[in-house]
Amino acid sequence: MIEGMDRRIVVVGGGPAGLYSAYLVKKKNPNILVTLFEEHSEIGIPICCSGLIGIDGLKKTDLLKYIIINDCVDNKVKGANIYGPYKSYFKVLSKVDKAYVLDRGKFDKKIRDLALSVGVEIVYDSRVVDVKENTVFVDDLKKNCSTEYKFDFLIGADGPNSIVRKTCFPEYKDIEKEFIIGYQIYVEGEFTKNKVDLYFNDFSRGLFSWVVPESGSSAKIGIGVSLSSDSKRKNNPKEQLYEFIKKNNIIYDKETSFCSALLPISKPLSNFVKDNVIIIGDAGCFVKVTTGGGVNFGLMSAKIAANAITNRIKDFKKLESYNKDIKRYVSELNLHYKIRRYILSKSNSELDELIQKLNDIGISSILEKEGDIDYPSLFIRKLFFNRKFFSLFRELIKFLKS
């Protein structure tokens, strides 16, 4: 233990959630040693993410109090084109910016700089392979050796395939069955800057396909493919992405790079604390299963986890307070899960018909005023009291039963 440091907190994973939790814990507790283990040689590399982040949701995390977000913003989006499986379509275009398209590399490095500014120790090329008896076992990928580190508190922020979750929360061993693979290419061409395109079809059954403009001359085109068996398709995300591009006549000049990642599209967990261990971010499945986006909820889980650990250290409160304080946000994630299950219950023709009906009742104007891509409860609550929605009362009942 370093002289003057009375406890050690270990954070596993150098993504936004892990870095933000490390920063907040160290900021609130200067005399605690906070060590973060990152398996790669650099923060922000590699990353596979559309970078589409809801502005209102990001504000709720308080991160914007500490960084200049415009340094990381490639584009700002006001709305979306929504395409059904066949001919249905509607568009949403707000008068104000609703989402940022972030350069995730720059974004992650901004949070890294925050962590370093308060004295967080970041250890690179270090893969945590096991957790036992208040000890993490770490493989040094450069020196090809292993080391053990004792901890007083452990924060698992090590992504969908979290070692911390697998070792400390074995009751969740089956959640990976619902995960999907995202495959995305980066392209140059001509694109409309202020809107994203979302496609619901067989190519990306279980999620959707997307075109997210970084600028008027570049974009990210991607697809989410279920890992579960599907007799209709081979579940090869790369092949299905190019089939999707061809069928929908998406034009671009050239492809510059590609990436692939696992997305934790599973039912939200019910417990995130085991003794002195907390899981956050993708490790805790804090992901909107309607979109695959997890940055904002990951940052929120980091904020609440840091508060829980601080309250435990300073006021001897139970660490389980994290479960209670995060419950409101888990409720939102459960609603996202319910929406996704409802969509999956529809055949292509039923989904196409539903999208057309939503367009007919003027869903666009409702979404433009009330829509929130992170917190659907705010929108759905108001939708129930909208007279235009009464014609879809039967669908509402089906949704509630889904």
Report on the architecture of this protein.
The protein is of the alpha/beta class and 402 residues long. It has 2 domains: 8-65 and 104-176 and 266-337, 3-Layer(bba) Sandwich (FAD/NAD(P)-binding domain); 183-263, D-Amino Acid Oxidase, subunit A, domain 2 (D-Amino Acid Oxidase, Chain A, domain 2, 2-Layer Sandwich), CATH 3.30.9.10. The chain has helices at residues 16-28, 55-60, 104-117, 163-168, 237-247, 295-315, 321-344, 348-360, 363-370, 376-384, 393-401, and strands at 8-12, 33-37, 52-54, 73-77, 79-83, 89-93, 99-102, 121-123, 126-132, 135-140, 145-150, 153-156, 180-188, 195-199, 209-213, 218-226, 254-263, 273-274, 277-279. Strands 6-5-14-15-16-13-17 form a 7-stranded mixed β-sheet, sandwiched between helices. A 6-stranded mixed β-sheet has the order 8-2-1-12-19-18. A hairpin with a 2-residue loop joins β9 (126-132) and β10 (135-140). α1 (16-28) runs parallel beside α3, α1 packs parallel to α6 and α6 (295-315) runs antiparallel to α7 (321-344). The longest helix has 24 residues, at 321-344. It is globular. 43% of the residues are buried. The model has no long low-confidence stretch (mean pLDDT 92).
Q: Which residue ranges are poorly predicted, with pLDDT under 50 across at least 5 consecutive positions?
A: none
- Helical segment count: 11
Average residue-wise pLDDT: 92
**What is the level 1 CATH name of the largest domain?**
Alpha Beta
The helix/strand series, from N terminus to C terminus, equals: EHEEHEEEEHEEEEEHEEEEHEEEHHHHHH
The class by helix and strand makeup works out as alpha/beta
E-strand count:
19
CATH topology of the largest domain: FAD/NAD(P)-binding domain
End-to-end C-alpha gap: 52 Å
